[in-house]
Amino acid sequence: MRRIKIIVSYDGTNYCGWQIQPNGITIEAMLNKALHKLTKENILVIGASRTDSGVHAYGNVAVFDTDSTIPAEKFAVALNQKLPEDIVVVESQEVQACWHPRYQNSHKTYEYHIVNERTVLPTKRLTNYFVSFPLDVEKMREGAKYLVGEHDFVSFCSVKAEVESTVRTITDLEIEQSGNEIKLRIRGNGFLYNMVRIIVGTLVRVGRGFYGPEEVKKMLEAKERTNAAVTAPAKGLVLVGVEYSETL
Predict the structure, then answer these.
(1) CB count in 10 Å sphere of residue 21
(2) In order along the chain (248 residues), what is the average pLDDT of each group of 10 residues?
(3) CATH 3.30.70.660-classified regions of the chain
(4) Strand segments (E) across the chain
């Protein structure tokens, strides 16, 4: 039995997220189906990030165990012949049997894409959050500074989250602007359920002038979900990648 690690890119528009569920098609289900067609084995992949419905990825990570003799590096090409066009295995390699994408020490990087434009552009509607009101990007940057570091992010976590601790560390949070396009890039050692989207929703409200930048600090300290803003739409969110350390 071998363990194969794959890096997966996908457009999440047509899927009910990563994780298998009874009432919808998911990324995980499509990978399992493709692997069964390829190897004739009943394989279940394990993903690093269980992205929500509509969320995209450039580089989600997953593993699966197989008795197949297909060379590890060939799985990517073979699987892509059996997957739909909106799911692509970018890379495949063999790893140790104990290597686990969720239990390995790691940092994840997400991007959130906003178009600050009054009119929705059809070609960008599935991958961007369109905000029609003017945004003060500098104030958004000021508010973002309060979120960098180790904090209890319970105010920026969906009430559905079931975790032992809501303390996380954000190492970088950058906001870039090019014309009417705004990109938030956030890197951390882990993220709570809907955490990135709630952060974006809050910073957008800061950019619109509903909150002052310093109020983001007060939201953190309040440790109460109702203090932060609404959750931004899923379609603007992309999992860029997962970086792993050598230690388990």
Answers:
(1) 13
(2) 98 97 94 98 96 97 98 98 98 96 94 96 96 97 98 89 87 98 97 96 97 96 87 97 79
(3) 107-244
(4) 2-10, 46-47, 56-66, 87-95, 106-115, 129-130, 149-152, 167-178, 181-188, 237-244
Cα 150 to chain centroid distance, Å, stands at 19
Contact criterion met (CB below 8 Å) for 5 and 66: no
Q: Which of the residues are catalytic?
A: 52
Tell which CATH architecture fits domain 107-244: 2-Layer Sandwich (3.30)
* C-alpha to C-alpha distance for 30 and 60, rounded to whole angstroms: 14
pTM of the model: 0.94
For the CA atoms of 84, 90, 92, 96, the dihedral, rounded to the nearest 10 degrees, stands at -110
- Per residue in 46-99, pLDDT (tens digit) is 999 999 999 999 999 999 999 999 999 999 999 999 999 999 999 999 999 999
* Cα–Cα distance for residue pair 38/156, rounded to 1 Å: 41
Copy the structure tokens of residue 141: 């940057």
**In the block, residue with structure tokens 């910073």:** 203
- Please tell me the CATH code under which domain 2-95 is placed: 3.30.70.580
Question: How far, in Å, CA of 154 to CA of 222, rounded?
Answer: 9
Residue among 155, 153, 13 at smallest CA distance from 84: 13
Tokens 């279940």 belong to residue: 44
Which residues have C-beta within 8 Å of that of residue 165, sequence separation ≥ 6? none
